[in-house]
Amino acid sequence: MKTFDTLLLPLDGSPEAAKGVGCALWLAEALGATLHVLHAARQPLAAAEALARLHLPGGHARVILHQMPGQADAATLEAVSAHGVDLVIMSARGASASAGRNLEQRLGSIAQVVIERSPAPVLLLPLQYREVLPWTSMLAAASGETAADEALKAAVGLAAALRIPLTIMHADDAAQADNRRPLRTYADAAYHEYPHRMEALVKRGLSGRSADESGCIEQVLLRHGDPADILLAQVECQGCSVLALGWHGALGAGRALVLKRLLEEAGCALLLVRGVERQAVKLNVGE
Amino acid sequence: MTAHEMLAAAMNGRKETAVEEGGSAARTGALEAAIFDMDGVVTRTAGLHAEAWKQTLDDILRRHAPDGASWQAFDVRADYLAYVDGKPRRDGLRSFLRARGIQLGDAEEEAAAERKDQAFITLLRAQGASTYPGTLALIGALRRRGIKTAVVTSSRHGRQVLGEAGAAGLFDACMDGMDLQAMALAGKPDPAMFLKAAQRLGVPPARAMVVEDAAAGVQAGRRGDFGLVVGVDRGGNADALRRAGADLVVKDLDELDTDRVEAAYRSRQREVAWRIEQEGFDAAREPDMESLFAVGNGYLGVRGVYDIPPPGAQCDLFVAGIYDAKRGDLPYSELEFLAPERDGDPFAELVPLPFPFRLQASVGGDPLDLSGPSGRGLKRVLDLRRAVLHADALFETAGGRQTSLRTRRCASLADPHLLLQEAIAVPLNHWASVEFDAALFDSARFAADHPQLRLLEHMATPELELLCFATRASRFDIAIASRVVRIPGGIRRLLSIFTSRDAADPKQACLAHSRALSGADFEQRLDEHAAQWDRFWEAADIQVPGHPAVEQALRFGSYHLRLPAGDDPRVSIGARGLSGRAYEGHVFWDTEIFMLPFFLHADPARARTLLMYRHGTLPGARERAAATGFRGACFAWESTLTGRDVTPDKVILKSTGKEIPIFTGRQQIHVTADVAYAVWRYWEATGDDGFLLGPGAQIMFETARFWASRVERDGRQYHIRGVVGPDEYHHDVNDNAYTNWMARHNLDRAAFLARQSGVHAGEADEWADIAQAMHVPQPGKDGVIEQFEGFFALDDYSLPVAERFKAPVNRLFDWEQVNRSKLLKQADVLMLPLLFPDAFSDEVVVANYRYYEPLTDHGSSLSPAVHAAIAARVGMRDDAERYWKQSLWLDLSNAMDNSMLGVHLAAMGGTWQALVSGFLGVRMTAQGIKSDPRAASRLPRDWESVTLRMAYRGHTHAISVSREAAKDTGS
Q1: CA-to-CA distance for B777 and B785, rounded, in angstroms?
Q2: Residues in chain B within 8 Å Cβ distance of A223
């Protein structure tokens, strides 16, 4: 089973990017993982100098510093595959955001490329992120889509490894005309269908996770209303440390309304998992 | 344009054509176009290409050979066919090099492709292109018949080659590699090029054939849904072409003439209507597919989970009657909905049993897993005629080793305790062996997935595995034996299943059954099974010439109705049969009102079995009546083994603490009269006096006694108060038209039967009196019947169009508001003209349809078919066709978005009923069974005719309605 042994923290020397340092060090400690710190810079600096410049306290045995020439986004993606990274930790805004080249001020251009293209989940610290360590609980949004299943799988793995409770929430938004979501159905019988659907929703995300790991799931909830509202409210009321979310992976092209709201308003870390491309199924029936 | 847009464009093209040609040619469904691959079919350039590839690739192989090591040259036959033939240059190049473990950069790849091109042109100029005379002869013959022709090739030099060969004038359309690039079409096996060619010819793919010599091209033809795909085997490729889906494989096209082509095309059309085919794999859609592809034989049902179950699959085997207490607890958490545990009723829920077809397979230690890194594709085919599920999956493991795994399975209809499974692996490009593990039992999985089961015994030898377990609360013992036989390339498995409900010692029965099986009988057992299905289809098949898609969907419905219908009168058919977990295997009015008519006329013996189940639950129904202070028997709204009602009275939402009351269990008492109605209909349809005078009479009398005590007298009239009618959005209603009408029928028929049999004379008078004085809401001045007392005074509810066919989940949460509104979940008053067609004039039927139809959100899958039947009867053809199609394809289109939890059997039965009693207006009279004289004019617009057989009073009657015949007789 995929664990979280190898973490990556890309830094650019800006104070915004350095927001991720505390969380990354804590996670590496708590997970017993190796933390690769990546500094993409034209001129490599002496190690001590680099650490200072990156706002990184020294003396951590499991921290490996890489200084790579080239574009920060490309370097980050390269490092993800080169080191077999299981989780990327980064602030939503680094120097690129400060420079004003960002998507409506919420997300730096580097962070955008990384969340759109990284094969590994990304722990993104949004604009309003308030650091509270250690983490106490996690929330995962289930939607029945493949990306959400993947996010749930990652969330269960991480919550189990950290021994923190996980809440799974399905938001059913009656106002939206998207009819592929699992609970959008005939109100046939609450007791005949919905429990099975909720169960299936959770089970798909648990595939490949052991029963022990699944033990971290504390509750499964159903709420009605705008998904972003509901998720933010739950984070607030439960004081969640991290919110896991699956998404389609094209922020500019796609709508990703929920993610955009969360980037703007969430005060906790976001565990983002991109959907893998789905093979279409075709049933040769009908006229 | 993307391939997807192309497809959409091609589909649009198809529509236009259909409109243009709405005449007789399109209706008879003849072949209209033929699309030919060029190289190897029309022209003989494969040798030139292979030689050009060899020059290019050998050079690359030489350069990439490890220092001094030897390298294996490109084989112009084997390698060319396996990797390069029929594909665009770059794809062919990549797939060959990948197999040899070589990866080139983009620029290198481009340069290599360019070198191959140059080599080809040099060879073409030097040697010229020749053609196949057989192909040219066939093209000529087709064109003389008015069949359009096109040529399609991945080759960039297509036009040049055709020109060199002098064949360019033979085609109405020509597309080559340059077009492919210019339009950014994906290469074969993507069907984009063929679809584009069909679009250019103005012919829908279903009316065109594809002729190909490469497996990738055959696959493209298949994926594009072409009407016929012909493979031309120029040597040693026949198997690959067949495997890729060719309908016909010939050595040369001189074997074919236009008659043979058209015969093959028509036969293919007929075959398609007997198969349900799925292509591709998507973990998120798997749960739906598992329901659609279920197999069963009345005794048991197994979901269509792939033989190597992907994680998250709902691997359920259900045995009819194996219920246990409801288990809300799951290993990882408590879920959102707290349904009470039904007072620990030991028969509250149909139990999911361990999946009997589970296999594991690996190649060189790498597991084959569709959802894992090795999964490359899946095709499932449900052969409806023989009731055999086939799957063909492709895997690719380390080193690019490709393995095809072909499996088939069935639940024997000849022997209900027998399941058959076969799995054959074919290594496509390697010699590594494929390892199978057919172990049924895994202790961790058993513990995690089956909280209701307790393991009794597990024993495994190389040939035989035995698994015995028991349900915890209901204490049924179940034994499954698996006998595995090795065959070349794979295994066959013969499974035996017995329970303590059908054998005193299920383990011994199971072992004895298993011992009598041998691998050598496998095909014979399969044939015996198929022979039973043949008999079923003889009675149940419906033909709609020229409409294979409709026939296919009707057969799919009949197939699924047959799966849970067994010979055991102690069980009946649950709402989702044995295909999924929804409704927990509970039996509703669905069975008697929606499914039974199908069995009455297709399989009357099973109709009797279904009614015997109700007879068997009379003791429970009596207890239920007594417990609520009434006499006689009141059947359970949700029934399992004992007739005790297993409907919960509320559900609690944990997140909000909100309580949702469930009124149906206590108030939806019409089910009692529905059962009596079904008894009467059975007798009318079969003339089975033995049943009516015996078990039937007991049901009629006991239910009449219930109504006699349940009615309330008010002055001269009798009322039924505090009920829920078929429309479950309203509870605690008085004088529901449907309930009162059905109760009156129940009382009236019981009185008649008692008097005829000379029994219960006093009671018979009482029943007749109550029936006479029952308040049954009548049509008002406008013809509309009030659904229940006070319905007309409810709040108006403006039902947004979007909600008309897709009731949102909040219906459930706003139940109080909904109860006060004129909003219907499903047909209620409209049920009456369906069940009593002669009791209402067409004017009254129209008035009620016009009034209630716009107020209905079809929150139940039972609703569309009823609306179709009523609209068809009164000639509202648009509505009738729309509702009928919705119902016909309800599961196949996943219209309810919940087919993952099992197929909707009542909708399937309702679809059948809407066709037979709605469109065809079939009526039973003393003289026999006949369709309505106006039936031909009511047929769906583009139908020419429909034919079916119906059993009626011991005889089989052919019903045939045809527009032509109607014209001939002047009716």
Answers
A1: 6
A2: 655-656
B67 in active site: no
The reply to whether residue B314 touches residue A146, judged by beta carbons under 8 angstroms, is no
- Burial string for B582-601 (b: 16+ CB within 10 Å, else e) reads bbbbbbbbbbbbbbbbbbbb
Q: B826-873: per-residue pLDDT in tens?
A: 899 999 999 999 999 999 999 999 999 999 888 889 999 999 999 999
Is it true that the peptide bond before A15 is cis, omega within 30 degrees of 0? no
What is the reported pLDDT for A45?
Answer: 77
How many percent of chain B have pLDDT more than 90? 66
User: Which class would CATH give A138-274?
Assistant: alpha beta
Residue B3 has pLDDT above 60, yes or no: no
The alpha carbon dihedral of B36, B41, B42, B46 has a sign of positive
Mean pLDDT in residue range A20-27: 92
Q: Which residues of B touch A211 (CB under 8 A)?
A: 331-332, 444, 448
Amino acid at B324: D
pLDDT at residue A2, as a whole number: 58
What kind of fold does domain A6-125 have according to CATH?
Answer: Rossmann fold (3.40.50)
Cα-Cα-Cα-Cα dihedral sign, residues B626, B627, B629, B635: negative
B638 → chain A, closest CA residue: A192
Chain B closest-CA separation from residue A40 CA (Å): 26
pTM of the model: 0.83
Residue A185 has pLDDT above 50, yes or no: no
Look at the block and give the residue holding tokens 């496998």: B522
Considering only residues 207 to 226 of chain A, which have any Cβ-Cβ distance to chain B shorter than 8 Å? 207-208, 211, 214-215, 217-224
Q: What is the pLDDT of residues B290-302, one digit of tens each?
A: 999 999 999 999 9
Query: Roughly what angle, to the nearest 10 degrees, separates helices B737-757 and B670-686?
Result: 50
Where does the pLDDT of residue A188 fall: very low under 50, low under 70, confident under 90, or very high at 90 and above? very low
Just give the CATH number of B571-919.
1.50.10.10
Q: Is A16 on the interface with B (CB under 8 A)?
A: no
Please give the pLDDT value at position B797: 77
Instruction: Give me the residue spans of the domains in chain A.
Output: 6-125, 138-274
From the candidate CATH numbers 2.60.40, 1.10.3470, 1.10.150, 3.30.70, the one assigned to the domain spanning B46-127 = 1.10.150
**Sequence ranges of the domains in chain B:** 20-44+131-272, 46-127, 571-919
- CA–CA distance, B391 with B381 (Å, rounded to integer): 6
Q: How far is A5 from chain B (nearest CA, A)?
A: 21
Mean pLDDT of chain B: 89
Using CB atoms and an 8 Å cut-off, which of residues 219-278 of chain A contact chain B?
A: 219-224, 278
Nearest CA in chain A to B859: A186
| CB-based contact, B653 to chain A, within 8 Å | yes
The residue in chain A having the minimum alpha-carbon distance to the alpha carbon of residue B334 is A219
Of the pLDDT bands very low, low, confident and very high (cuts 50, 70, 90), residue B163 is: confident
- Distance in angstroms (rounded) separating the CA atoms of residues B585 and B578: 7
A188 to B285: CB separation less than 8 angstroms, yes or no? no
Name the token pair of B474.
Answer: 């209901």
Each residue of B714-729: pLDDT tens digit? 999 999 999 999 998 8
How many Å lie between the alpha carbon of B738 and the closest alpha carbon of chain A? 20
SS3 B96: helix
Q: Is B190 a catalytic residue?
A: no
The class level of CATH for B20-44+131-272 reads alpha beta
Residue B39: pLDDT band with limits 50, 70, 90: confident
A42 touches chain B (CB under 8 A): no
Nearest-CA neighbor of B358 among B427, B445, B418? B445
Per CATH, A6-125 and A138-274 having the same topology is answered yes
Give the tens place of pLDDT for each residue, B164-182: 888 888 999 999 888 888 8
